[in-house]
Write a structure and sequence with these properties.
The complex is a heterodimer of chains A (about 325) and B (about 100). By secondary structure, chain A is an alpha+beta fold. Chain A has two domains: about 10-105, PAS domain (Beta-Lactamase, 2-Layer Sandwich); about 125-330, 4-Layer Sandwich (Phosphatase 2c, domain 1), CATH 3.60.40. Helix content of chain A is about 30%, strand content about 35%. Chain A has helices at about 20-30, 30-35, 50-65, 105-125, 175-195, 200-210, 285-290, 305-315; strands at about 10, 15-20, 65-75, 80-90, 95-105, 130, 135-145, 150-160, 160-170, 220-225, 230-240, 240-245, 250-255, 270-275, 280-285, 325-330. In chain A, a hairpin with a 2-residue loop joins β12 and β13 (about 250-255). In chain A, α5 (about 175-195) packs antiparallel against α6 (about 200-210). The mean pLDDT of chain A is about 90. The radius of gyration of chain B is 12 Å and the shape is globular. Chain B is of the alpha/beta class and about 100 residues long. A five-stranded mixed β-sheet of chain B has the order 1-2-3-4-5. The chains are: A alpha+beta (about 325), B alpha/beta (about 100). The interface between A and B is medium-sized, with 22 and 20 residues.
Chain lengths: ~325, ~100
C-alpha cells in the first residue's frame, strides 16, 4: 500500500489522519509528516457546499461506504478533481477507522472515461445481438480492442418477410474508426431503403462511402437480404471474402472475390444467391477473426444459441490485434 | 528484415520479405506515411520475396495507395506470387493497384 499507485489515507473516527502513502504526497503535495495528526479537512477545497458533506456523512454512517467525485485542494492551493472511495474499518475493541483511496481525474483519465461512455453508446445503436422469431434466430457477438469498435453489424426487416443484414469492418480500430462506423451505419440504412436491389445499394454505398472513409481508410462488408417466402439468401461481398453455410450437418465455406468499400469509385460489386432451407445456418465474421482462424472453423460449434459463449472461449486463446465481430443466422 | 526501403527522393523502392504480420504492417505504415508527408510521390513495392501478408498488411498498402493518389502520385507492385497473388485476386486489388508482371 505504501507504494500503491493510487493515493491512500487512513483516518480515525474523528477524521484525524493517521497514515498516508507516497502517492498521497505526490498528488496533494503534503509530506507524510505534514498530514499525519491533521484533520482530513486539510484538503477541503470549499467547492462542495454543506449539503454535499451532509449527504457524504449520512451515507458513511448509514451504509459504511461512500464513493464519488470530489474537488480538493493541494498544498500549493491548486484545485484538483478526484474519484474517491471511503470504507470504514472496525477493529476489535470498538475502534472505527476510515480508509480512503482516490484517483485524480486527469484530462487523460477523463478522455478514457469518455471513451468508455462512447463504447456503451455505440453498443446501444446496434440491434439486440439476440433475435428470435418464428422464421429465424440471429445472434451476434462483438469484441473491440478498446471500449469502442471499428466493426459494426445490423439487421432489420425491409418488408414483412424480408430481412436485411450485414457485418462490416472499418479498417483500423479505436475512436477514429468508431466515428466512421457511426456514419457508415446511417449511410447503409439510407442506401438500402433508397435502392431497388442489394447490388445497386452496395455500388451506391461504395461511391458515397468515399466521403466518410477519407485519407487512408476503407471498409469491408458483407450484406445480405433473406427472403423467407422464397428462402433465397442474396448477398453482396465488399471485402469480406468468405462466410460459412451449414446445411444438413455439412459446413461449406463460400468464397467471393470482391474489393473493399472506399478504395476505388469504379469498383463493381455483384450479387450472388444461395438457396437455403429450414434448419440451415449462415455464419458471417470480420477480418480480425479470419486472421485468427487457420481454416479450422470447426473449432466453434455453430449454434445461434451458444454463439456468444463459444466466441468468448475461442477468443480467449488469442491476443487480439483487431476488433472482431461474428453473426450467425439460423433458420427455424 | 521483413521491410527494406531504398529512398531515391520522390521515388522509393520497398522490398517486402518473408511473412508480414500486424507489427511489421504498423511499422511499414509509419515509415511510408512519413515519406509521403515529406514529398515522396512514387512507391514501387517488390513482393517477389513475400510469402504471406495478412489483412493488416493489405490495409497499409491500400492506405498508402489512397494517400498517394490524393497527392497525384502512384504505387506500383511487382513480383506477386503464390498465396499473395491469390489474395490480390480474391480482394480484386489486382484491379486497383498498378501491377507490373515480372519480366
Amino acid at each position: 500500500m505504501e507504494f500503491a499507485q493510487d493515493p491512500m489515507v487512513l483516518a480515525n473516527a474523528e477524521g484525524i489522519i493517521l497514515w498516508v502513502n507516497q502517492a498521497f504526497t505526490k498528488v496533494t503535495g503534503y509530506e507524510r509528516e505534514a498530514a499525519v495528526g491533521k484533520s482530513t479537512r486539510l484538503l477541503k477545497s470549499g467547492v462542495q457546499g454543506q449539503d454535499f458533506y451532509e449527504t457524504f456523512w449520512n451515507s458513511l454512517i448509514l451504509t459504511g461506504h461512500w464513493s464519488g467525485e470530489i474537488w480538493n485542494r493541494r498544498k500549493d492551493g491548486s484545485l484538483y478533481r478526484e474519484w474517491l472511495e471511503i470504507f470504514p474499518l472496525d477493529l476489535p475493541g470498538g475502534n472505527r477507522y476510515f480508509f480512503t483511496v482516490f484517483q485524480e481525474i486527469t484530462y487523460e483519465r477523463e478522455i478514457l472515461l469518455d471513451i468508455q461512455v462512447a463504447g456503451k453508446l455505440q453498443a446501444s445503436l446496434a440491434p439486440d445481438p439476440l433475435f428470435v422469431d418464428k422464421f429465424v434466430q440471429i445472434n451476434a457477438a462483438q469484441k473491440g480492442l478498446y471500449s469502442v469498435t471499428g466493426d459494426l453489424y445490423d439487421y432489420f426487416w425491409l418488408e414483412d418477410r424480408v430481412l436485411f443484414g450485414y457485418i462490416a469492418d472499418v479498417m483500423g480500430h479505436g475512436v477514429s474508426s468508431a466515428m466512421q462506423v457511426g456514419a457508415m451505419r446511417v449511410l447503409i440504412r439510407e442506401t438500402i431503403h433508397q435502392s431497388a436491389t442489394l447490388e445497386q445499394a452496395i455500388n451506391r454505398l461504395n461511391k458515397s462511402a468515399g466521403m466518410y472513409l477519407a485519407n487512408d481508410t476503407f471498409a469491408a462488408a458483407l450484406c445480405f437480404i433473406m427472403d423467407f417466402d422464397t428462402m433465397k439468401f442474396r448477398y453482396v461481398s465488399a471485402g469480406i471474402h468468405s462466410f460459412y453455410h451449414q446445411t444438413a450437418g455439412q459446413l461449406h465455406k463460400i468464397q467471393v472475390e470482391s474489393t473493399y468499400l472506399g478504395v476505388s469509385d469504379s469498383a463493381e460489386f455483384s450479387e450472388h444467391a444461395l438457396q437455403l432451407k429450414s434448419g440451415d445456418q449462415v455464419l458471417l465474421m470480420t477480418d480480425g477473426l479470419y486472421d485468427l482462424m487457420p481454416a479450422s472453423i470447426e473449432l466453434i460449434p455453430l449454434r445461434a444459441s451458444n454463439l456468444r459463449e463459444e466466441f468468448e472461449n475461442f477468443l480467449g486463446q488469442f491476443f487480439l490485434h483487431d476488433d472482431v465481430t461474428m453473426m450467425i443466422m439460423e433458420l427455424n | 528484415m521483413p521491410v527494406e526501403i531504398e529512398n531515391h527522393g520522390e521515388h522509393i523502392m520497398v522490398q517486402l520479405n518473408g511473412q508480414m504480420y500486424v507489427p511489421d504492417a504498423a511499422m511499414l505504415r509509419e515509415r511510408l506515411m512519413q515519406l509521403v508527408e515529406k514529398g515522396v510521390r512514387n512507391v514501387d513495392v517488390n513482393m517477389a520475396r513475400l510469402d504471406f501478408i495478412d489483412s493488416a498488411g493489405l490495409g497499409v498498402l491500400i492506405g498508402i495507395h489512397k494517400r498517394l493518389i490524393e497527392h497525384g502520385g502512384r504505387m506500383t507492385l511487382s513480383g506477386l506470387r503464390g498465396s499473395v497473388k491469390e489474395l490480390f485476386a480474391l480482394t480484386r486489388l489486382d484491379k486497383v493497384f498498378d501491377i507490373k508482371e515480372e519480366s
